[in-house]
Amino acid sequence: MLRLLLLRHAKAASPSGTLDLDRPLAKRGQEAALVMGDYLKRERLAPDLAIVSSARRTQETWERVQPILGEIAMRPDGRIYEASVGRLLEVVREVEPKMRTVLVIGHNPGFEELAKLLIGEGDMDGILRLGQKYPTAGLAVIDFELESWGDIAKKSGRLERFVTPKSLGTGEDD
What we know:
The chain is α/β, with parallel strands linked by helices. The chain has five helices and seven strands, in the order βαβαβαβαβαββ. A seven-stranded mixed sheet has the order 3-2-4-1-6-7-5.
């Protein structure tokens, strides 16, 4: 079995004169990233590999999650920033099969579109909530009964859960 963790970056600030790529996390985003890191650890969802967009807000999300999870291989990937669903699928399909659980930290609308493309069944409440909104710091856990990431196809995944800071009772969703 393969497990894909899609974590949208936490809430970003929008300082004037700052390029979108360089937007830092807002205070609320910093707190939400820690909440999601604690959740990943508590639920034993630590990945074998993290693939992180090159945007500052995704890097800062990882910088808050990683110390909670411990030593995990991280691969920055600039292709995730402003990526289409096809590009995101390409990034995931390139992962080596020995990496059984992979965390990708990136952006919307790509993450919502990728999750909708991959999920064929699973947690119906989560599927409905994900379809309405994929907020910052939202986490989709998608399982595949496959042996190779290259075999992932449309509707081949099962949504195991969809978690947000608000659903954990620790904040608001953006």
